[in-house]
Amino acid sequence: MKSPANTDVDALAGKTIALVGLPADQTAALVDAIRQAHAIACVLKEGDSLPVPSKGTLFDVVAIDAALDWDAEGTDMAVLFVGDAGTIARWSPALHDQAHDFLIAPCDPDEFLLRAGRLVAAH
User: Which pLDDT band holds residue 1 (cuts at 50, 70, 90)?
Assistant: First the structure.
């Protein structure tokens, strides 16, 4: 029997995870972890835009720097906020939803995969 942690990480296989506005050093470690989980990483900078597909979702999980000004409550995507305690606190209303979670930066790649996997499974 698989442990719950492995099951959560296994849920990421084949999924696309966007990393938005995160520091370069942290992004590199997370991209490696995402690839090891057999998922696809898409690294975006603040202000980047992509065409939105007519069917389906653009990403399975969006991991975003909590300091960025973004309307997370208006999205249908699972969102993982990453930042210091002060920036995370401003997102507390959005975090009461099963499709949103947070990590205090700098975050451990294994913890990142666990949280992202839980979001995918719940969404």
Answer: very low
